[in-house]
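[09:14] KT: can someone run the structure on this one? pasting the chain below
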Amino acid sequence: MLEWTIFFQFSIFKLQYYYDDTEFGRVIVSTRRGMRNYTARWKGDVLHANVPWGTDARKLACALDQMRQGLRAQRLTHPTLEFAIGQVIDCFGRQVRLTEQSHVPGRMLFGRDGDMLTLALPKGMDLNSDSGKRNITHGLQVMLEQEARQVLLPFADQVARQVGATPSRWEVGRGMTKLGHCTSQRVIQLSRNLMFLPERLVRYVICHELAHLTHMNHSPEFHALVDRYTGGQEKALEQELKRFKWPIVR
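[09:31] RB: done, structure tokens below
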């Protein structure tokens, strides 16, 4: 039986929801007005589909069936996200080690030793089930949201001074598809998920948002400014970010 549930964003222009496919599991679906084609691609272990506005469950199932063979082939060559006890995840300015604990059943516990953080998972937890991966991802995000205030925002302020830009303030957000946002009040919000990126890509996202202080659009002038802020590396960094293999479920 087909099931679908609206789970996050709705407006008169855009809708996002998830759809449970019998083979591919949870599919993140995006639709917006004016979209005409059906496309899908893997991001980590999660399939993301873009569909025309008004697509119902039956049409979505048919579209996935038509793309299924190609998506299977993509999945075979796509790196699979896996977690393991003892694994160390490199983050921006921090490392996180996954450990196991039996003191508090069913709970994840946070700890730290200097710049090494620990996420202690319940003993016997199925780390690589869909729910296990999502729960670990959420635990990592909650832990690193606090760390972002200590390392990400000071770094962003340093980058701003280097390029001569002055936002009114910085904030930490939770976006995954939108890693940064600049408001008309010159407030720049940086996602906690930037903590999973290497420094060069963190700097790129920050420079992108700083350029919005001058150009609140994506005009050629805007991109020229981002390119200047990044030392002529805007296009290369943009492509690297698109290809980045995230250590969490997206």
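[09:33] KT: thanks! The first strand starts at residue 3 and ends at 10.
[09:34] RB: yep, looked fine to me
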